[in-house]
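Why Stage 0 sporulation protein A homolog? Reviewers of the renewal asked for a concrete example.
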Amino acid sequence: MKELTFVVVDDAVFMRTLLKKIIEEVETYKVVAEGANGFEAIQKAQLFKPDIMTLDITMPDMDGLTAVKEILKCSPDTKIIMVSAMGQQSMVIEAIKQGAKDFVVKPFEKSRVLQAIKNVTEN
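Here is what the prediction returned.
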């Protein structure tokens, strides 16, 4: 099976570290870059064309919701998994309409993160 590449975007270093750790426990998953806001997410998408990007909804400078369309313009094959806090359902629904493929809610469980990855790679 080919290696899947990931970009992890969250303004909280702790959350990026946690997600990266969960993702890289799978032998064929590799985090190639990280970002702290929507602008960085777009830059990393252009540069790395990752298979999957985890994208926090609430970030400074540019939020994840705003970034979804731009990311898919420059890297149309990237599958986006939104990362949201509790109570952000309407924003998650909007992100899915914009082209995101799945979501995980903070604080996330490892099994749910891996399930979301599986969901987006099988569809």
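Strands lie at 4-9, 29-35, 52-56, 79-84, 102-105. This is the kind of structural detail the renewal will allow us to pursue systematically.
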